[in-house]
Amino acid sequence: MVRTRFAPSPTGQLHLGNLRIAVFNHLFARHHGGAFVIRVEDTDRDRNVPGSLEAILEDLAWAGLHWDEGPDREGPFGPYRQSERADRHRAVAMGLLAGGRAYRCFCSDERLATLREEGEGGAPGVGCPGGCQVGDAAEAERRVLAGEAAAIRFPVPDARIEFHDAVRGSVSFHGGDVGDFVILRADGRPTYNFAVVVDDIDMEITHVIRGAGHLSNTPKQVLLFDALAAPRPVFAHLPMVLGADRKKLSKREGASGIGELRAEGYPPDAVVNYLSLLGWSPGDDREVLTREELESELTLDRVGASDAVFDPEKLRWMSAQHLALLSLQELVQALEPFLDRARFPMEGEELLRSVEAIRTRLHTLGEVNDTLAILHPGPAVLESGVREVREEGAEARRIVGGVRAALAALSSWEADVLGQAVRDAGKEVGARGPSLFHPVRLALCGTRSGPDLGLVLAALGRETTLERLQAAE
After folding, report:
1. Which of 126, 147, 175, 448 is the most buried (most CB within 10 A)?
2. What is the DSSP string of 87-111?
3. Last-in-domain residue among 325, 356, 371
4. pLDDT by residue (tens digit) across 401-430?
5. Annotated catalytic, 251?
6. pTM
């Protein structure tokens, strides 16, 4: 069974780059009918932010990335917080030590810093910088029993470390460039590379899908998998996401917090769709894919190694495409939390017709109030439109009057009928194109352009339409 994991640290907001990793892990697990696990990497107590985990889980749930196991959904491989797995990490480290696969290191941070400054023991491949790896094991135990602090360090062979990456193919590092590394700090806390391997083994994670920035961690991790006689998972390092300046994506370059996207009204399916295309392709020219299509089609063989560029305008475009996929009723329901009821106290059919008129102009749900203002711009804007019509002279007023008379005679007030009635009235008064539509739109909405005129008229209703047109005659 395929099992993937997303392992956030509760140190702040969930950003687009983090969410992208969760998206790939979730979609890949769903594609294979597997399990998606949330594991919290919270062992760095000094950096943990109260409330961060709750906010991260809320954002993941908003994005529709529902997990099968996690800190709030216990499964057979818990606990799912690293801070609650400390005894397990220590036990595994002590097992490696007892089996001669690790050694005690008595070098303090100060001593290591001094050695680096003096240029001694700085080459990673020579073992412990302070020479602890060549000490007597029995003597090391006596020092520990006497109360001396010691970390546990893992020895790295002076040879090539090779592994297969599902995105990049065969990858290798030389052990001399990796160096012996600490797996358990002197205070008993595990290091990142050690804890994730122990947890991945215990949780039976089959695929480790993460960003390219973790590639340099992988040689340490594959050595630990091998030392613990556990099968290596499939590693897949997704390409880096760059900002428009071709530098690593930053908040300034668009790495918005997910909370900001939610507040602006980006539909979650659009965000997930867009993030899935940062490194992956369905194999054809499709860009707009539903959640079901993504779950059905996302596989690692179509993930490329080239860096992807985040384009906020493309995300806005994607958002508009997904809003267009919604039925009118679904769109109105999605817009409800964003609607300013004080400005637009519309209900029922009036609200449906208004949303139908402006929906093609929406890029995000949060734009609904500014977009509805096209239909209901306020007295000042309407008065300005009337002045423009009158300044254009008698011909413009005659056109507005002819359109008003044609609309007043209608028995049906439906968008297609209304649009045709305006065009027919234009023929009667000898106007078409901008000469017809500009004065009518100015009278109705105070602007020369806008949504489909038939839809605008249907949204405004008979009474409001005729009143506004009459005011400009």
Report:
1. 175
2. HHHHHHHHHHHHTTSSEEE---HHH
3. 325
4. 999 999 999 999 999 999 999 999 999 999
5. yes
6. 0.91
